[in-house]
Design brief:
Radius of gyration: 31 Å
Structural class: mainly alpha
Largest sheet: 7 strands, mixed
Strand content: 5-15%
Keywords: Acyltransferase, Membrane, Transferase, Transmembrane, Transmembrane helix
Distance between the termini: 120 Å
Pfam families: Acyl_transf_3, SGNH
Transmembrane segments: 12-29, 36-53, 73-92, 136-158, 170-191, 203-223, 230-248, 254-272, 284-303, 315-333, 353-374
Number of domains: 2
Domain Acyltransferase: 9-336
GO molecular function: acyltransferase activity
Shape: elongated
């Protein structure tokens, strides 16, 4: 019995250390720490430990566990989400509202990890203000396993209630199976799509399963106190420092996640064997561990709000300390004034229905706040669309306004994103549409990915003005390239789609194909070999190409930057040398069926590239043009298309003249002979 308190104290201390790790790494080091993985192990350890001390649970006991868990989790989560929503109304950039309303809803439903997985969010994307709801992904995963694992224990108990050892063997077998299958899946999906894997519940299941196995095994592991102390200290040092040497943000939750998981297990085993680590079991750390859950929830929105308020991603030592102190104060108030009264309420403990009703009522708080936010967003979005329509009709900007307004910038897309004429990232089938003068004999094909598609607006206007037929063959994230192994081909469907595009263009035999010419930034800007291969394939089909130099990629969300610096048009500019090669790489190529166009002067002067031109917002994210900006370049696009068509017409005319002259010469020789 003497071991039990020390054991429990050090687990609480480990929670405190994990929470502080997460905060410190987020605020100053700007890396993933592995602290969340410690939470997962401990959560599963307690889930299984609470049931192992008793006989197999019946349905009533299972519901009791759910009731207690909800009373522990919901109060703090509801308060943090509601407060974050309210503060976001005043501090969050307008450009973030559309997506963050979705994240607020997902957080309220404990599904934020899946919302982030769907958007493939880069958790620590430097240069872009982070979502204040992102930290709730870990809580969502925990809540999902708070439901699934007790259910699993109950179901395995139904297999054989007579023999407790048999029940344990079944449960252990299931956990081992989860570790094997989930870890294998985690390795696979992390290699294939790491941003998705990071938030994937199934890719994290093995971490919880190891925590569950630890609950079964820890009492059977006996170590001397000296060995336990060595294990405890080595595990703690590894846990605190390993992320400094590995870029775990891009490696989790694959094999590298074994490091914090096994380190947490090592500390728990050492504590069980009386390692007596004062850094973990002293009174202050244990006290902080009691509110580590709330501290974790609060530190992230405070960090986000600081960045919104200052417009800076970097955090000074003083400001970061203030964030930690503020999160600590809020965690104390949340834990002892809000969570504890609900969790220990005698009234709510009387019946599960009381607990459920109370939790539903608590979650109604962020739901009401979210509803108000959404209504405000809808009204402002309507006003923004009206303002943009007036600007496009009258070309008379209102003072201080940018177009499109940042609130709707992410939705300022080419028409093919709205009428179903732009293929999705995963479908290899062609989607072919026509715009402009659809009866015209002259045909121009727009082919490639979103960076080709973004020129649809001015090309469509040019087709209407110059009376040619515009055919679109575009697909998300798939440039016109015949290099199946290119690192920019992120989806397996791209190569199959490209082969179909080249074949279809050969069947259409257009007068011109409009596509992209370059890829990359600064000194890495190149003409990819896959692009060259596609142009040569089109040359064999007798098709000419107009290849346009790609626009600069800024690396941060431009509308957000403009929101954060409304009084400085140059604050979001970047040096031209960082975004474009000194000379266009297309100058090194001279292909008979390709004409190149360099539009970099639309985005950059001699020294800087500007994501905002006067009152016009050039970018809708970090590298895609707004449809508004593209439409304003109609005259320029129409001119380069007409010039390319005229050049190729002249070439064809000259070739025809040469053939005629050659034939006449042959006839003359024949007549003389």
């Amino acid at each position: 019995m003497a071991q039990k308190p020390s054991y429990l104290y050090e687990i609480q201390g480990l929670r405190a250390v994990a929470a502080l790790m997460v905060a410190v790494y987020h605020i100053w080091i700007q890396k993933v720490s592995g602290g969340v993985d410690v939470f997962f192990v401990i959560a599963a350890f307690f889930i299984f430990g609470s049931f192992l001390r008793k006989a197999p649970p019946n349905l009533g006991e299972l519901l009791d566990y759910y009731s207690k868990t909800l009373r522990r989790v919901v109060p703090s989560a509801a308060l943090v989400i509601m407060t974050t929503i309210v503060v976001s109304l005043f501090l969050m950039p307008d450009s973030m509202w559309r997506n963050q309303i979705k994240h607020a809803l997902a957080s309220t439903l404990f599904l934020e990890n899946w919302a982030l997985a769907m958007t493939a969010t880069d958790y620590l994307s430097k240069g872009s203000p982070p979502s204040p709801f992102q930290q709730l992904w870990a809580l969502a995963v925990q809540v999902q396993f708070y439901f699934l694992f007790p259910l699993m224990i109950w179901l395995t108990g139904l297999i054989d209630r007579r023999l407790d050892p048999q029940r344990r063997r079944v449960c252990i077998g299931v956990l081992v199976g989860i570790v094997v299958v989930s870890l294998a899946y985690s390795l696979y999906i992390t290699a294939r799509n790491q941003p998705w894997a990071y938030f994937d519940t199934f890719a994290r299941a093995w971490e919880f399963a190891i925590g569950g196995l630890l609950a079964f095994a820890v009492s059977r592991i006996s170590l001397s106190q000296t060995v336990a102390r060595v294990l405890g200290w080595v595990s703690l040092i590894v846990l605190l420092t390993f992320a400094l040497f590995l870029n775990v943000s891009t490696l989790f939750p694959g094999a590298v996640a074994l490091v914090p998981v096994l380190a947490a297990c090592g500390i728990v085993i050492a504590a069980r064997n009386r390692c007596d680590m004062a850094i973990l079991n002293n009174r202050f750390v244990v006290w902080f561990g009691d509110m580590s859950f709330s501290f974790y929830l609060w530190h992230w929105p405070l960090l986000s709000f600081y960045r919104y308020a200052t417009g800076s991603f970097d955090v000074s030592a003083l400001a970061g300390s203030g964030i930690i102190l503020g999160a600590g104060v809020l965690a104390y108030l949340t834990t002892w004034c809000f969570e504890t009264p609900v969790r220990r309420s005698a009234l709510l403990s009387r019946h599960n229905i009381y607990s459920l009703a109370a939790c539903v009522a608590l979650l109604a708080l962020p739901t009401v706040a979210l509803s108000a936010w959404y209504q405000d967003y809808q009204a402002r979005r309507s006003d923004a669309h009206e303002a943009l329509s007036r600007f496009l009709d009258e070309r008379a900007p209102a003072p201080g306004q940018v177009y499109p307004p940042t609130l709707i910038a992410s939705m300022d897309l080419p028409i093919s994103s709205k009428d179903g004429c732009h293929q999705t990232t995963t479908n290899p089938n062609l989607v072919e549409c026509e715009y402009g003068d659809t009866r015209a004999e002259r045909i121009v094909v727009l082919a490639g990915g979103s960076h080709a598609q973004q020129w649809l607006g001015p090309l469509k206007a040019a087709a209407e003005n110059a009376h040619f037929r515009l055919v679109t063959l575009t697909k998300g994230a798939c440039t016109l390239s015949l290099d199946a192994n290119a690192d920019y081909m992120n989806y397996p469907s791209c190569h199959e789609w490209n082969e179909r595009v080249v074949k279809r263009i050969g069947e259409i035999r257009p007068d011109l194909v409009f596509t992209n010419a370059t890829r990359g930034q600064g000194t890495d800007e190149t003409v990819p070999t896959g692009y060259l291969a596609s142009w040569r394939a089109l040359e064999r089909a007798g098709v000419d190409v107009l290849a346009v130099r790609d626009n600069p990629w800024f690396g941060y969300d431009v509308p957000e930057c403009v929101d954060l610096h409304p009084d400085s048009a140059s604050a979001c500019a970047k040096p031209r040398s960082q975004l474009l090669a000194r000379r266009s790489p297309t100058q090194a190529y001279h292909l008979e069926n390709v004409r190149f166009a360099d539009l970099s002067d639309l985005f950059c002067d001699d020294d800087y590239c500007h994501p905002r031109q006067g009152n016009v917002l050039v970018y809708r994210d970090d590298h895609h043009l707004t449809n508004t900006f593209a439409l304003l370049q109609t005259t320029r696009i129409e001119r380069i298309v007409e010039q390319a068509l005229a050049d190729f017409d002249q070439v064809r005319l000259s070739a025809t003249s040469l053939r005629v002259a050659h034939r006449l010469a042959q006839l003359e020789v024949t007549e003389r002979s």
